[in-house]
Amino acid sequence: MHYATITGWGKCLPPATLTNDDLATFIDTSDEWIKPRTGISQRHISHVNTSELASVAAKRALAAAGIDGSEIDMIILATATPDTLIPNIASTVQANIGANCAAFDINAACSGFLYGVGLASAQIQSGQSKKVLVIGAERLSFFIDWSRRETAVLFGDGAGAVILEATDQPIGVLGYELNNDPAGRDILKSEFGTSMDRFEASSLDFYIEFNGKEIFKRAIAGMGKLSNKVIEKCGIEKDDIDWVIPHQANERIIDTLINRMKIPKEKAIVNIANYGNTSAATIPIAICDALEQGKIKPNQTILSCAFGAGLTSAAALIKW
Ligand code: ACO
């Protein structure tokens, strides 16, 4: 039996930051509104494409794992904001790291990174791949209508990457659950870049539309359901969980989820204050932050969960 364990990790946050006070200089908002409702203080804004953020994170993950790009046999890049739809931008990362392997993008929105981890682990467990690079990368700032305060304050840019390698030890990805609820397709969407563009000139006004209250409720329900399912499937107790690394869309969503799951708040990794919602990149960035802060230690058990447009949801249990 092969297991898939994380041997390398890296993140890339563009250097420019935009604070809540900066935002208040050009839209009708304030730190007093944003911070208590979302937990966000600032976000990073990229001047380069998603593939460049992804490539830097990938190179750092390779360096941490101590392996060369040529050793990777699959690249899975989760993004909802690719530089191009065709070709996929996993191929740009592939060229930048000198890999010769399968490479593709997936769009499962904010759940994309965990979808990638699930696919990578199945690929490794089956013996088909030995070293898989999974990346979550977004340049959401490019897709935001900066005059709409409802969305402009929520999102940020960034990338995170991990290397999953085969091992015979029972560590790494212990289990995962993936789901999608199409009944929620319309509550979070962006129609820019679709075939609709051909028919509707107005669709060039690209922006993300969503129903925040509905997402709030469904996010807690969706992440809770899949988290419980994967915990049960893996036969572990909630007390055995050392850290929870949830998607960072709103600190109040995380608080409510953790509370309902009866997991102590101190076990949640929360970094939304610094980055905002970076969609598919929030979880790998949070993994990097937790490691840099010396929080995650060998043999600890991590529950990670996410939700996003689709409405996708995902959960994974990882033994470090
Ligand atoms: N600054 C100041 N006022 C604002 C802002 C802003 N940035 N945005 C909205 N408002 C105003 C509204 O106009 C409204 O004013 P009104 O009462 O005079 O009409 C008032 O604040 C309340 O607006 P709501 O949209 O009802 O605010 P709510 O309390 O629902 O908070 C939020 C909005 C933070 C987005 C919340 O719904 C939420 O956290 N949702 C879940 C996360 C989410 O939706 N993320 C984006 C999708 S991406 C993802 O998560 C996968």
UniProtKB/TrEMBL annotation:
Function, in words: Catalyzes the condensation reaction of fatty acid synthesis by the addition to an acyl acceptor of two carbons from malonyl-ACP. Catalyzes the first condensation reaction which initiates fatty acid synthesis and may therefore play a role in governing the total rate of fatty acid production. Possesses both acetoacetyl-ACP synthase and acetyl transacylase activities. Its substrate specificity determines the biosynthesis of branched-chain and/or straight-chain of fatty acids.
Its EC top class is transferase
Complex formation: Homodimer.
Which segments carry the region annotation ACP-binding?
Answer: 248-252
**Which reaction is catalysed here?**
malonyl-[ACP] + acetyl-CoA + H(+) = 3-oxobutanoyl-[ACP] + CO2 + CoA
Name of the molecule in the record: Beta-ketoacyl-[acyl-carrier-protein] synthase III
SUPFAM superfamilies found in the cross-reference section: Thiolase-like (SSF53901)
Q: Where does the Beta-ketoacyl-[acyl-carrier-protein] synthase III N-terminal domain lie?
A: 104-181
Chief location bin: cytoplasm
Q: Which residues form the active site?
A: 110, 247, 277
Task: Please give the record's comment on domains.
Answer: The last Arg residue of the ACP-binding site is essential for the weak association between ACP/AcpP and FabH.
| Gene from which the chain derives | fabH
Write the Enzyme Commission number(s) for this entry: 2.3.1.180
The Beta-ketoacyl-[acyl-carrier-protein] synthase III C-terminal domain, residue ranges: 232-320
- List locations, semicolon-separated: Cytoplasm
Q: Which NCBIfam families does the entry link to?
A: fabH, PRK09352.1
Keywords assigned by UniProt, alphabetized:
Acyltransferase, Cytoplasm, Fatty acid biosynthesis, Fatty acid metabolism, Lipid biosynthesis, Lipid metabolism, Multifunctional enzyme, Transferase
Instruction: Identify the metabolic or biological route this protein is part of.
Output: Lipid metabolism; fatty acid biosynthesis
Question: What's the family?
Answer: Belongs to the thiolase-like superfamily. FabH family.
